[in-house]
Model the fold of this input.
Amino acid sequence: MTEPLEKRLEKAMAELQAAQEAMARTERELRQASFAVLSSDRAVRATVGPQGELTGIEFLENKYRDMSPQELAASVLEAAGAARVKMNRHVMKAMSPFTEPSSNVPELKGFEVDWERIFGPEVLHDDEEDTARGADHGPGWRDALDEDGED
Done:
């Protein structure tokens, strides 16, 4: 049996409202996010902010004293680049629920995002550390909508 248009519109408006609130929460969380990564030689820790901007560099255990300028620069660039990729992946995971179609309102199809074009191809490759931790955490707003008890 087909659901009346008024009921479908009511459901769509409720889901839209919930999505807007979830987007606002996600934006607040992302504005506070930062990631720090150690270089592979463990000489440098770079920290990036929510827009991938470099917010901190630490030179660890005085290792920089025994490094050439080129080695130190390479360590800084490696750590900063890896931290930026982690932040990009975090943004992608946090925003991906908003790209998915609605399970309750079939007319709400979601939208496509070309993450590779926005962040570069490295953001699409699995990060062994994230995979090992099972870090597929994003906002659970759609799960909460599905659990509201309304059928």
